[in-house]
Amino acid sequence: METEVLQLKSPTDPEVIEKGAMIIKNGGLVAFPTETVYGLGANGLDPKAVAKIYEAKGRPSDNPMILHISSQEMLEELVREIPKEARDCMDMFWPGPLTMIFYKKDLIPDKVCAGLDTVAIRMPSDPFARALIQASGVPIAAPSANTSGRPSPTKAAHVLEDMAGKIELIVDGGPTQVGIESTVLDMTVDPPMLLRPGGVTLEDLKELLGDVDVDPALLGGKPKEVLHPKSPGQKYKHYAPKADCLLFAGNLKNVAKEVNKRIKENPNKKIAVLATEETMDLYTEKPYLLINMGSRDHMEEIAHNIFNSLRECDEEDVDLIFVEGFSFQGMGQGIMNRLLKACGGKVVLGL
């Protein structure tokens, strides 16, 4: 299969929308930009089309997907009930980077939900994504458009690297805005439970809803044994670069001191350090690759750059990656969730 790449001439380029919608309607796969990361989309009501996503990604069959919708009316057709708290979240955060889990209606194939009675749904804020869904006339099942387990794609080039020859079309809408996947909130329990942090923070949710539980394994680095995960990212290793990755948490000067020591101890290794604006000058033992993820005063910038930084390490074929840690507050929670999984739970604490 030859994969076509089309660049958007406008956020709602009619020619690209028409072509993408035709592929979706015919049971094919389209990679497209959202505000979070690039998604790999198929008709979410067609089990054969959804099966192609699993095949293209090499995705485990018990890892559920997220359905993307273009209107609240579409949601009514897909779920059995919408709690008041969910409607409040829709009013505040939709369209945007919040996924909510509901009890599904029977028209949603088991393949989308990995056999569960629940379905994860969100309405993206990206104008192209919503226009594609509307033109397709169906909810679009769309996990991240990468090989399963690799860093998520925030640029069309990342998608092409993983999906060339496996899918019909990649829509190039430039770099994504948020850079990490959506927040996932389970609305089938009381109080609602945060299953994955993202662009909508726990603090945002608590301010609106009051009481919000947090999955106790949410920030655990090593994958937990979850028999039936409700949300993508709960069961399997995610976001991992090719090289071994180690996360350092603590006082920033001590972190840099420890990293400098380890660089010196490994003179024959190609080492990458993922640092920040505030710490770049602290690395006196210069690594093979020193990447500035952004300023700690602008955590959205760091979230935007994480996956691109990890993929840059892959491109440079490094042997080791050392990454600075962050606070678990606000957007830092989503950042640390991704970094812990990328590092497979390998953390140097107490510095």
TrEMBL record:
<feature type="binding site">
    <location>
        <position position="59"/>
    </location>
    <ligand>
        <name>ATP</name>
    </ligand>
</feature>
<dbReference type="GO" id="GO:0003725">
    <property type="term" value="F:double-stranded RNA binding"/>
</dbReference>
<keyword id="KW-0808">Transferase</keyword>
<dbReference type="InterPro" id="IPR006070">
    <property type="entry name" value="Sua5-like_dom"/>
</dbReference>
<dbReference type="Pfam" id="PF01300">
    <property type="entry name" value="Sua5_yciO_yrdC"/>
</dbReference>
<comment type="similarity">
    <text>Belongs to the SUA5 family.</text>
</comment>
<keyword id="KW-0963">Cytoplasm</keyword>
<keyword id="KW-0547">Nucleotide-binding</keyword>
<dbReference type="GO" id="GO:0006450">
    <property type="term" value="P:regulation of translational fidelity"/>
</dbReference>
<keyword id="KW-0067">ATP-binding</keyword>
<feature type="binding site">
    <location>
        <position position="68"/>
    </location>
    <ligand>
        <name>L-threonine</name>
    </ligand>
</feature>
<dbReference type="GO" id="GO:0008033">
    <property type="term" value="P:tRNA processing"/>
</dbReference>
<dbReference type="GO" id="GO:0000049">
    <property type="term" value="F:tRNA binding"/>
</dbReference>
<feature type="binding site">
    <location>
        <position position="118"/>
    </location>
    <ligand>
        <name>ATP</name>
    </ligand>
</feature>
<dbReference type="GO" id="GO:0005737">
    <property type="term" value="C:cytoplasm"/>
</dbReference>
<feature type="binding site">
    <location>
        <position position="152"/>
    </location>
    <ligand>
        <name>ATP</name>
    </ligand>
</feature>
<feature type="binding site">
    <location>
        <position position="122"/>
    </location>
    <ligand>
        <name>L-threonine</name>
    </ligand>
</feature>
<comment type="function">
    <text>Required for the formation of a threonylcarbamoyl group on adenosine at position 37 (t(6)A37) in tRNAs that read codons beginning with adenine.</text>
</comment>
<feature type="domain" description="YrdC-like">
    <location>
        <begin position="14"/>
        <end position="200"/>
    </location>
</feature>
<feature type="binding site">
    <location>
        <position position="63"/>
    </location>
    <ligand>
        <name>ATP</name>
    </ligand>
</feature>
<keyword id="KW-0819">tRNA processing</keyword>
<protein>
    <recommendedName>
        <fullName>Threonylcarbamoyl-AMP synthase</fullName>
        <ecNumber>2.7.7.87</ecNumber>
    </recommendedName>
</protein>
<feature type="binding site">
    <location>
        <position position="239"/>
    </location>
    <ligand>
        <name>ATP</name>
    </ligand>
</feature>
<feature type="binding site">
    <location>
        <position position="144"/>
    </location>
    <ligand>
        <name>ATP</name>
    </ligand>
</feature>
<dbReference type="GO" id="GO:0005524">
    <property type="term" value="F:ATP binding"/>
</dbReference>
<keyword id="KW-0548">Nucleotidyltransferase</keyword>
<dbReference type="GO" id="GO:0061710">
    <property type="term" value="F:L-threonylcarbamoyladenylate synthase"/>
</dbReference>
<dbReference type="InterPro" id="IPR010923">
    <property type="entry name" value="T(6)A37_SUA5"/>
</dbReference>
<dbReference type="InterPro" id="IPR038385">
    <property type="entry name" value="Sua5/YwlC_C"/>
</dbReference>
<dbReference type="InterPro" id="IPR050156">
    <property type="entry name" value="TC-AMP_synthase_SUA5"/>
</dbReference>
<feature type="binding site">
    <location>
        <position position="196"/>
    </location>
    <ligand>
        <name>ATP</name>
    </ligand>
</feature>
<dbReference type="Pfam" id="PF03481">
    <property type="entry name" value="Sua5_C"/>
</dbReference>
<feature type="binding site">
    <location>
        <position position="142"/>
    </location>
    <ligand>
        <name>L-threonine</name>
    </ligand>
</feature>
<dbReference type="InterPro" id="IPR005145">
    <property type="entry name" value="Sua5_C"/>
</dbReference>
<feature type="binding site">
    <location>
        <position position="36"/>
    </location>
    <ligand>
        <name>L-threonine</name>
    </ligand>
</feature>
<dbReference type="InterPro" id="IPR017945">
    <property type="entry name" value="DHBP_synth_RibB-like_a/b_dom"/>
</dbReference>
<feature type="binding site">
    <location>
        <position position="182"/>
    </location>
    <ligand>
        <name>L-threonine</name>
    </ligand>
</feature>
